[in-house]
């Protein structure tokens, strides 16, 4: 569904329908597929696109033009898109979302084999195009979930990636919820004002494990390592991160897995920033709020 604007005067548009999009009923549009198809002289016919698929496109004429969505947005079960799937894309204008956004796993690839270039291909709940930056505003008042917390190959997604970014409660007054699995991220603001309130962020969603197991050191018990953890954590090596689950192939390799709740980058103007959301922080190596230049995460 796409929204444009009037040639003159302000545009206000509303969608109340649930949106289910399908990618040509292709269930294999993951990073491995994208790498192969993007280099092929002749792309395979009748296959799903890896170049981008979206539920709602906001492409109005002015930053004050407003599109309000009250319907849920998700990919139909007939397809599975793990690269460049977006619940909504805002090229220009204001987007207010009350609906639930649910996307499939991002990239679906082993973390240690992912490059910085690959991190530009991740799934995003609501994405603002950087071309117009301050002429885009995102206000989210619905739940956002990207992928499965039990899939260690669910990597790099953002719930919201924008500039002027706000979150608030649902229409019934309850808090909106954003679920952030390990090696994935919550809210990014590259510029403009930020107001994150009446929202619950599950930072890590009980999946972050931090570093790999220590294999050196001194202990009073023969053969034991200085540090021990629970051994029943799903997707772990004796309760620690599996080396395959660390983003060690980036330009700036990661030695820990992590999850970030809110990331506020350096902007170009004076900004009003409020972050008063509830955050459930995971046990090991999660970050709730990060204010610095985006040097160690890959910009999209």
How would you explain this protein's 3D organization?
With 300 residues, this protein is mainly β. Helices cover 3% and strands 33% of the residues. It contains 1 helix and 21 strands. Strands 1, 2, 4, 5, 7, 9, 10, 12, 13, 15, 16, 18, 19 and 21 form a 14-stranded parallel beta sheet that branches. The longest helix has 9 residues. The chain is globular and about 75 Å long. The two termini are 23 Å apart. The relative contact order is 0.13. The C terminus is likely disordered.
Question: Quick gist of this model?
Answer:
The protein is an all-beta fold and 300 residues long. The protein has one helix and 21 strands. The two termini are 23 Å apart.
SSE topology:
Elements (H helix, E strand, L loop, with lengths): L1 E2 L8 E4 L3 E3 L9 H9 L13 E7 L6 E4 L3 E3 L9 E13 L3 E3 L20 E5 L7 E5 L3 E3 L11 E5 L1 E4 L8 E6 L2 E6 L4 E3 L2 E6 L54 E6 L8 E3 L2 E4 L5 E5 L9
Parallel strand pairs: 1-4, 2-5, 3-6, 4-7, 5-7, 6-8, 7-9, 7-10, 8-11, 9-12, 10-13, 11-14, 12-15, 13-16, 14-17, 15-18, 16-19, 17-20, 18-21
Q: Could you give the count of β-strands?
A: 21
Over the alpha carbons, how many angstroms does the gyration radius reach? 20 Å
Order of helices and strands: EEEHEEEEEEEEEEEEEEEEEE
User: Averaged pLDDT, please?
Assistant: 89
Helix content: under 10%
For the sheet with most strands, the description reads:
14 strands, parallel
Tell me the fraction of residues in β-strands, as a range: 25-35%
